[in-house]
């Protein structure tokens, strides 16, 4: 029986905690710092995800066997290295890469150079330092609009700007070099725009040993029909039927997943954890838009409920490098997740409103930005709740999520009404 610690505090971590709490191998589950939703699955511990010393002390005190790291920031800051290098914590399983592996997400420049070196399809690009304004502008002249400009480092999801005019592109480059995201934007990547449909693939791996998790489609823009600014994600569906065909998935495995694992081995980076491949399907061919060194949010909320296997067993097999491709059982049911946000997100929004539920809700309600105050549940973030439903068809899953949403109330509740509609349309054309 295992003691497990999940690090993070969003709906992704609630979904992870929920899935881990179903394992027949679980003894105690702790979530750090967690949220009111994770408190329903285990014990929350009020320590920051970036306070490595206190985290190590907790691992020792609670005799934690497995640590699962949800967000990218502690990984890029070296939490896995910190735990694994500690002599008394040597037997702890850490699901999350060491810093060198987390650079796949922590530095766009590193990721792009890695893809170039290992022949992994990605948009044409060049890297520039802040002293190379002139060279950056010259490179822009070789591209046609829209222009894609990316800050090298982590920028809380705001480090990618896509502009239609060269003037806006030049302005963005200048702002980045001037330190809009501090050190993270002193180096930039400029790349070609890829036209296609985005889809997210995930693996759990250790070295070249891996299992493919269900894929998902994420709805990033705040408004219906993909309008308005980018957000952390307003909803997801899994599977991405009609986009992630068998033929496409075979190409993803051969052209992207296996070369990535091979590249990590060549670079002597032992990677144990999740890899999230943000892909563009361009006329049936996959290109990597970005790597993430963790699971996605809200993708996790759609993919974990579709995994039938015991997740602690998967973690143990990953650690021991005994994962076999068919160790993972995936349900044929479809999942749809709709995010309930606070009106105004991803810009300014208010928080502190009471959240109430009426009737019998048949969906999973994963907490993102919520808080308990005076014994009441209140809104405490831009993304408040993630409502996930399963169904025999995607239509059923989507309908159930929207039915549940009608039974959840808080002031300024905002959500997209069209999650999954494009997938339904693609598939209706195929029949
Ligand atoms: P990222 O932060 O790298 O996920 O980028 C944010 C979003 O920008 C992605 O989800 C895509 O929708 C879009 N994007 C990034 N790079 C490209 C590209 N080369 N071509 C088209 N869209 C892109
Ligand atoms: N849903 C996209 C992300 O987690 O980065």
Helix content: 25-40%
The poorly predicted ranges are none
Oligomerization category of the chains in this entry: single chain
The gyration radius over C-alpha positions equals 21 Å
Q: Can you name the CATH architecture of the largest domain? A: 2-Layer Sandwich
Which fold name fills CATH's third level, the topology of the largest domain? D-amino Acid Aminotransferase, Chain A, domain 1
- Any idea what the shape is? globular
Identify the CATH class of the largest domain: Alpha Beta
What is the strand content?
Answer: 25-35%
**Which molecules are bound in this entry?**
adenosine monophosphate, glycine
| Helix/strand structural class | alpha+beta
- Overall mean pLDDT stands at 95
Q: CA-to-CA gap between the ends?
A: 48 Å
User: How many beta-strand elements?
Assistant: 25
Q: Sheet with the most strands?
A: 6 strands, antiparallel
Number of domain units: 4
Helix count equals 13
Q: In the CATH hierarchy, what is the superfamily of the largest domain?
A: ATP-grasp fold, B domain
Walk me through the structure.
Strand 10 (197-206) and strand 11 form a beta hairpin. The model has no long low-confidence stretch (mean pLDDT 95). The termini are far apart. This protein has helices spanning 11-21, 52-61, 72-76, 79-84, 99-106, 108-117, 133-141, 166-177, 246-266, 299-303, 311-319, 394-405, 421-430; strands at 2-8, 26-33, 43-44, 66-69, 93-95, 125-129, 147-151, 160-163, 187-191, 197-206, 209-212, 217-218, 221-223, 227-230, 235-238, 272-282, 285-292, 334-342, 356-357, 364-367, 370-373, 376-379, 383-391, 408-409, 413-414. Strands 12, 15, 18, 20, 23 and 25 form a six-stranded antiparallel β-sheet that branches. Helices cover 30% and strands 29% of the residues. With 431 residues, it is of the alpha+beta class. It contains 13 helices and 25 strands. Glycine binds at residues 218, 233, 292, 296-297, 299.
């Amino acid at each position: 029986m295992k003691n497990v610690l999940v690090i993070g505090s969003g709906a992704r971590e609630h979904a992870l905690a929920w899935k881990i709490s179903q394992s027949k191998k679980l003894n105690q589950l702790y979530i750090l710092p967690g949220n009111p939703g994770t408190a329903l699955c285990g014990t929350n511990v009020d320590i920051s995800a970036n306070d490595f010393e206190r985290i190590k002390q907790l691992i020792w005190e609670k005799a934690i066997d497995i640590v699962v790291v949800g967000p990218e920031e502690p990984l890029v800051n070296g939490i896995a290295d910190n735990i694994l290098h500690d002599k008394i914590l040597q037997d702890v399983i850490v699901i999350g890469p060491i810093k060198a592996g987390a650079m796949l997400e922590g530095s766009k420049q590193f990721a792009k150079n890695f893809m170039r070196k290992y022949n992994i399809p990605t948009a044409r690009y060049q890297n520039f330092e802040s002293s190379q304004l002139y060279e950056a502008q010259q490179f822009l002249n070789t591209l046609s609009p829209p222009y894609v400009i990316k800050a090298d480092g982590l920028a809380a999801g705001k480090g990618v700007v896509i502009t239609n005019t060269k003037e806006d592109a030049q302005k963005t480059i200048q702002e980045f070099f001037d330190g809009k995201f501090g050190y993270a934007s002193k180096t930039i990547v400029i790349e070609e725009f890829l036209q296609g449909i985005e889809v997210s693939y995930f693996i759990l791996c250790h070295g070249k040993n891996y299992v493919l998790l269900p894929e998902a489609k994420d709805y990033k823009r705040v408004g219906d029909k993909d309008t308005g600014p980018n957000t952390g994600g307003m909803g997801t569906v899994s599977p991405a039927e009609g986009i992630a065909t068998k033929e496409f998935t075979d190409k993803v495995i051969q052209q992207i997943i296996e070369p990535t694992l091979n590249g990590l081995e060549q670079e002597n980076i032992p990677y144990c954890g999740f890899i999230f491949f943000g892909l563009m399907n361009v006329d049936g061919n996959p290109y990597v838009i970005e790597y993430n060194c963790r699971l996605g949010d809200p993708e996790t909320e759609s993919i974990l409920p579709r995994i039938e296997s015991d997740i602690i067993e998967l973690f143990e097999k990953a650690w021991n490098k005994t994962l076999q491709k068919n160790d993972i059982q995936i349900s044929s049911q479809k999942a749809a997740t709709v995010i309930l946000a606070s009106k105004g997100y991803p810009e300014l929004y208010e928080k502190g409103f009471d959240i109430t539920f009426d009737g019998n809700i048949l969906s999973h309600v994963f907490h993102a930005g919520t808080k308990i105050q005076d014994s009441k549940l209140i809104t405490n973030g831009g993304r408040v709740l993630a409502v996930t439903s399963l169904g025999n068809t995607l239509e059923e899953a989507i309908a159930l999520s929207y039915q549940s949403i009608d039974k959840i109330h808080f002031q300024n509740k905002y959500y997209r009404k069209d999650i999954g509609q494009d997938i339904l349309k693609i598939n209706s054309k195929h029949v």
